[in-house]
Amino acid sequence: MSLKIHHLNCASLCPITGDMVCHCLLVEYTDGLILIDTGLGTKDITEKSKRLDLGFRLLVRPKLDIEETALYQIQKVGYKREDVKHIVLTHLHVDHAGGITDFPSAMIHALRLEYRNIYNKNKILPGYSKEQFNKEINWKIHDVMGEKWNGFNKVNILEGIDDILLIPLRGHTNGHCGIAINSTDGWVLHCGDAYFHSATIKKGLKETPFSINLFQKLVEYNSETRLRNQHRLRKLFLDKKSEIKLICSHDTSEYNACNCGKNPNFIYG
Ligand SMILES: [Zn+2]
Ligand SMILES: [Zn+2]
To answer: What is the distance in A from the centroid of ligand 1 to the CA of 172?
Structure first.
């Protein structure tokens, strides 16, 4: 079974390094919709000083436009919030998980290590907002089982369904993962914040703009793991360029290519 994907930008960010999107995916599944990352939610806009700390607002300067929220975009095309049955998160940073409170009936999927960053820590780490998780949330927490997908570990999100998988890609955070989807256009691997600029994966680390390299270093959890996973993604890109589309959360050109129906793997010719 292959799944139809829609590409959404669920928060424009305007850091000094250049404009960014929050590239989320809306997946049509047999019994409803699956949202891959949420971007910022409606409450992040209406209660911004409570939910988004000043450091985040100053560093990434979010546009805070209600029309960019996943809820607004989903309702605009005629769906209801209840139609979103599952939300799968690459990680729980503010700009990825803020929208989960807009979908109270959805099941929320994440890796256990990432979940612990919110619930098992006395002090919340930078980049996370405890306020985004202060309501009752219908969690489905996953452990890494070690089965393989193109050489990477994989976790089935839905039992017995091999078309949507968590792919652990640690480094940016300790529980960060990618999400692989068997779409109608072939496999898509949403790499979240495992990289920030397509050149990192599709050309080489040296080709990544200096400011982006500095930014990804500033916000990483573990440098060695992040670089190792970027290396693995580069190899996957070279080996499977025509079979697997690689996208990340914040690269505007990749997002624009997807939205025009082009393959983001070929945006550099
Ligand atoms: Zn992040
Ligand atoms: Zn991010």
So the answer is: 7
Edge-first strand order for the sheet with 147-149 is 147-149, 152-156, 164-168, 177-183, 186-190, 244-247
Measured from the alpha carbon of residue 95, the closest ligand is 2
Q: If you measure from the C-alpha of residue 94 to the centroid of ligand 1, how many angstroms do you get, rounded to a whole number?
A: 8
Residues 37-91: pLDDT tens digits?
Answer: 999 999 999 999 999 999 999 989 999 999 999 999 999 999 999 999 999 999 9
Q: How far apart are CA 240 and CA 123, in angstroms?
A: 41
**193 CA from centroid of ligand 2 (Å):** 5
Whether the predicted model's global pTM rises above the 0.90 cut = yes
CA–centroid distance, 203 to ligand 2, in Å, is: 21
Determine the Cα–Cα distance for residues 143 and 112; give it in Å rounded to an integer: 6
**Other C-beta atoms lying within 10 Å of the C-beta of residue 20:** 25
Q: Which ligand is nearest to the CA of 21?
A: 2
Cα 93 to ligand 2 centroid, rounded to whole Å? 7
Q: b/e per residue, 100-109, with b = 16+ CB within 10 A? A: bbbbeebbbb
Give the burial class of 49: count Cβ atoms within 10 A of its Cβ; 0-12 exposed, 13-18 middle, 19 or more buried: exposed
DSSP strands (E only) in 30-130:
32-36, 84-88, 107-111
Domain containing 145 — which CATH number?
Answer: 3.60.15.10
Digit-coded pLDDT (tens) for 15-43: 988 899 999 999 999 889 999 999 999 99
Number of domains the chain contains = 1
Structural domain containing residue 201: 4-266
